[in-house]
Amino acid sequence: MTDKALEKKVVDVMVKPKYIGLKYAIRPDLFVSKAYYTARKEYVKVKNKVSDSNSFQVQCYYTFDVKDTRSGEISKVQGKTIRYSHLDIDKFLDDIIGSMGVEFAAIKLETLKLEFQFVINPAGGKLTEARDYDSILNKKSVVKIINDDNNCFWYSLACCMNPNNKMVKDGRYPNTRIRLGSEICKKCNCEWNKVVPIFPHINIVEHIYNCNIYVINLNNIPILGSSVSLLHSDCLMYKSDNKNKEHYFLLYDEDAQHYHCITDIKKFLGVREFCYNCMKGFTSKTAYTNHECGGGEKKKKINYKTADKILKDLAHYLTPNFVKGSEGD
């Protein structure tokens, strides 16, 4: 299956190996190389239509179930490789094989999926290796929060929750942002202008406002136009059960411990459609309409009887809902 973002020069190819009569494999090298070159053929078909460049970068996302050969226990594995240039394909394949290896375990082939993402370098130029800090914060889909107090979390939420209020997004009108941010803080029974740990109040806000809040890692942003699920990358730092109508995205800088606001996740990721169950972007409406939604995760029920109890036992509630790229985290 191929998903193309022609304007962004990004090609995603999903490969699902099939083996007659074989259910398990203990050697990833038997199928990784073949899967890559199968995906490469699809990439070449697209590349010939949109670019004369022979230069590209590639990365791989994968997921599969493994069976412990000693206990028989089944577990899920998912991961990704770093991006490699077209000159490092042997190293790229070795990296995939090395990262997939699990001692005393056999890969269940019917569950194996490999997604290769090819990024076509512009002819006569060099593709930027990463989305740098300044370019991310200067995007139109991001409200950069500049403040001299400890309320960046509340200011970011104020921008998210008031999308039609131009003044709250404009740094020239700080009083509007302060007023709306403090109202959210007060309604959630939290303390204003207090230095707090990472993600301390998100569960409370979600409950009070019947919303879903997601936190994206500013230091690990996916490639523009990527159709890989945020759940399969390291950029998603926080996600709870998808149970509410409103969805708010925050951008978090780990180094500065500072929040910013993402006003439009589709524009931010460079995609046309976005599924909140799969946490995946799509570069075409057809791909979005025809995709198999992976939102069938089991929901954990939490008893929110009183806000006071949540505040006292906040760490307990944060633990099962903290997601960092894998189902087990």
What can you see in these coordinates?
With 329 residues, this protein is α+β, with helices and mostly antiparallel strands. The protein folds into two domains: 2-120, Dna Ligase, domain 1; 133-147 and 201-295 and 304-321, no CATH class. The protein has eleven helices and 14 strands. Strands 1, 2, 3, 4, 5, 6 and 7 form a seven-stranded antiparallel β-sheet that branches. A five-stranded mixed β-sheet has the order 8-12-11-9-10, covered by helices on one side. Strands 13-14 form a two-stranded antiparallel sheet. α1 packs across α2 (89-100) and α4 (152-161) crosses α6 (174-187).
Helix content: 25-40%
What is the rounded Rg? Answer: 22 Å
Order of helices and strands: EEEHEEEHEHEHHHHEEEEHEEHHH
Structural class: alpha+beta
Question: What is the terminal separation in angstroms?
Answer: 29 Å
Number of helical stretches of at least 4 residues? 11
The assembly state of the depicted protein chains is: single chain
- Domain count: the total is 2
- The rough form would be described as globular
- Averaged pLDDT, please? 76
